[in-house]
Amino acid sequence: MVTVPPDWYQRQVQSPGREGVQLELLLSVSRERAGTLRGQVEQGLRTAVRDGSLRAGAVLPSTRDLAAQLGVSRKIVVDAYAQLAAEGYLTMRQGARPRVASGALRPVAEGAGPPSTPSLRFDFRPSRPDVSAFPREAWARCLREAVGEINTEDLGYGDPLGVPALRVALADHLGRTRGVVASPGLTVVTNGYLHGLGSICHALRARGARTIAIEHPGNPEQTAIAARAGLTPVRAPVDELGLRVADLPGDVDAVVVTPAHQHPTGVVLAPSRRAELIALLRSRGALAIEDDYDAEYRYDRPAVGALQGLDPEHVVYCGTTSKVLAPALRLGWLVAPPALTAALRALPELGSARVEQLAFARFVERGDLDRHLRRMRLRYRRRRDAMVAALAASLPSAELHGIAAGLHVTVALPGVVDEPALLRVARMRGIGLATLADYGHTSGRPTLILGYSQMTEARITAGVAELATLVG
Ligand SMILES: Cc1ncc(COP(=O)(O)O)c(C=O)c1O
């Protein structure tokens, strides 16, 4: 039973009210309308509670604040609240703001809500960094500085291509670490690689492009993104030397490629194929879109410079914080030729959170990114070693690829394995992983894609041993 505290009414009418946050409520009353002012307040609130726009537990303005907002005497609101409490719509507690009572509501359709994260005992899902190592303190310091330093221009919409300080920091960083030929004017900040890819596809389509080749196997989301932009996506096959340039269709306008570490096979694009690709781009006036998603992680081989460095006029370079820091940041970048940069500027969907951009600029400038990468490279190398050793012990006849770099290995299994069934059983046992079929590749040897970035060496060893029992 909902009640009003015994002295609530008296106190409301007598007390001067407390200073505090004034809550607004979408409600209006008028002396021109039928009914008393009190009746209008009551009816407005009843309707809002019934139709679900005021949810159970929602806080309402104090009687003083609502009276001031509506331009009526406080007594009118006090009487209306008391009546609604008596009817079970509101609950009142002394010293607290009124709330909508539970149980007075029509059930409102809930959205699906975020998908629940599966609880995994062993998480071999690829393409994820170890976010438990996110440099919270350094990031918090950079964010604090950014909030203090951001100027009025950048607090507005600013340049849609990004905050100038970050474009300068990225151009320097990418030139130094990846051999990218970058100037701040051609460096564009995005909400991550996939957003950057979508923007590039829209800009290309606006310039008349029709066909885009996408590495196969590859991240399946890319095909949908290209198609949504009005391009026709076609498959670009990959072998042990990387993209098979000679097999690209004759009319291709753009090619999406992962030269440093093909995703997901782990192959490095061979020097001969790089040269072949650049020659093809030049002869057709086509563009390569280089996804340099995890090139920072290499263990047993020297860094492979960015393809973009070979021909900045025919390659758009793309990078992301999703593998080096955390996907949650939704921060990426691209370096584009001048004509494409101009076309990108004209897109309405460009632009991302500018305080975070400035924070990331500070993070790069002061060496926090280099420091973090050095630390993570060591950590991932140990985990990679544990993964290779565990596979040698538990699945000795499996063939490993792509172990020299990145955050996952590909594991070609001997014999016949029903990949979807294996995934289902693994999931039931709390083991998360991917197979080549998840990237559109359904022929050839069954192949697991095992990420090693998210577990300690001991967990990797235990997980691989359990996984091996399922593979048979
Ligand atoms: C091949 C590849 N590139 C890039 C990304 C990162 O995309 P984003 O920056 O949109 O998170 C992913 C994400 O999993 C990926 O698999």
**Morphology:** globular
Question: For the largest beta sheet, what order do the strands appear in spatially?
Answer: 4-11-10-9-8-5-6-7
User: How large is the radius of gyration?
Assistant: 29 Å
Class by alpha and beta content:
alpha/beta
In angstroms, what separates the terminal alpha carbons?
A: 62 Å
What tags apply to this protein structure?
472 residues, Arc Repressor Mutant, subunit A, Aspartate Aminotransferase, domain 1, Aspartate Aminotransferase, domain 2, 15 helices, binds pyridoxal-5'-phosphate
Summarize the structure in words.
This protein has 472 residues and is α/β, with parallel strands linked by helices. The protein folds into 3 domains: 8-100, Winged helix-like DNA-binding domain superfamily/Winged helix DNA-binding domain (Arc Repressor Mutant, subunit A); 122-126 and 371-471, Aspartate Aminotransferase, domain 1; 134-366, Aspartate Aminotransferase, domain 2, CATH 3.40.640.10. 39% of the residues lie in helices and 13% in strands. The chain is built from 15 helices and 16 strands. The chain has an 8-stranded mixed sheet. It has a 4-stranded antiparallel sheet with strand order 12-13-16-15, with helices on one face. Strand 1 (90-91) and strand 2 (99-100) form a beta hairpin. Helix 5 (136-149) packs across helix 12 (354-365) and helix 8 runs parallel beside helix 9 (221-228). The longest helix has 27 residues, at 368-394. The protein is globular, with a radius of gyration of 29 Å. The protein starts with 7 loop residues before the first helix and ends with a helix. The mean pLDDT is 92. The site of pyridoxal-5'-phosphate has 13 residues, from helix 8.
